[in-house]
Write a structure and sequence with these properties.
With 255 residues, the chain is of the alpha/beta class. Helix content is 39%, strand content 20%. The protein has ten helices and seven strands. A seven-stranded mixed β-sheet has the order 3-2-1-4-5-7-6, with helices on both faces. Helix 2 packs across helix 3 and helix 2 packs parallel to helix 10. The two termini are 28 Å apart.
């Protein structure tokens, strides 16, 4: 495993800048417990595997749950791009013995400076773009990094009206609508191949937790119950009957 150091960017603020301190608030219900939601990441890897081949970037990899699922699915060579130094150490230990894994400590801007444009075949980004102030600029960097025909896969929080205390706690700038996401992808040059809502079953619990009770965390036990019991059932149902509304959006764009 090779771990390059991100080139010095001076005073330039990366286009995919993340407030890593605030995002660490997500550890309690999204990252610290990611190894306990294997079904969730295996599903994402399967979803993105239709285009994720060759050289793949896992953008904002966190502790590497999605990267690990992509490697398990033998999707290709995966580079975990992560700006949080604390999580870089976690990733380096996790993938130290995997020849198909690489950890890049930094941002997509840094990766672009180190490797140049048209240098990767696919980019996956799960629950990251909402942490970035200028998400269009970030999508533009992704487009520049991809080779012609390469794809980007996004998994994002959906519906602005669902924005609540849980979003505030971890530094979410926004939740997306389908039309807004399509417009942003097309604006930077992507051809939208797929976009749709998912995770309808979680909408009511999210409203109760984040907008009614105004809680700041979701317990690990609730996540495990969702991953092991609820998610496998809803995944199959939504594959047969795609919901018109949901807690999340999935999008795939092609350069």
């Amino acid at each position: 495993m090779r771990s390059p150091v991100e080139p010095e960017l001076g005073a330039h603020r990366p286009h995919d800048h993340i407030d890593v301190e605030r995002r660490r608030g997500e550890l309690s219900f999204g990252m610290e417990t990611r190894d306990n939601v294997r079904n969730y990441f295996a599903w994402q890897a399967q979803l993105f595997q239709e285009f994720a081949r060759g050289v793949i970037i896992d953008h904002g990899s966190g502790t590497g749950g999605l990267a690990d699922a992509l490697l398990t699915a033998q999707a290709g060579r995966v580079t975990a791009v992560e700006p949080d130094e604390q999580l870089v150490g976690v990733l380096q230990r996790r993938f130290a013995n995997d020849p198909n894994a690489e950890v890049f400590p930094g941002t997509l801007d840094g990766y672009l400076a180190a490797h140049g444009g048209a240098s990767v075949d696919a980019i996956v980004s799960s629950n990251v773009l909402e942490h970035i102030d200028d998400d269009v600029a970030c999508l533009r960097i992704m487009h520049e990094l991809l080779r012609p025909g390469g794809g980007v896969g996004l998994y994002l929080p959906a519906r602005p009206e669902l924005y609540g205390s849980l979003d505030e706690e971890v530094g979410h700038f926004r939740r997306y609508t389908r039309s807004d996401l399509v417009a942003k992808l097309e604006r930077v040059g992507f051809r939208v191949q797929r976009v749709g809502y998912c995770n309808l079953v979680s909408v009511v619990p999210w409203i109760v937790t984040g907008r009614v009770l105004r809680r700041r965390k979701i317990g690990a036990g609730s996540l495990q119950l969702f991953d092991r019991v609820v998610f496998p059932v809803t995944r199959r149902l939504e594959a047969w009957f795609p919901p018109p509304y949901g807690l999340n959006l999935v999008a795939i764009g092609v350069k």
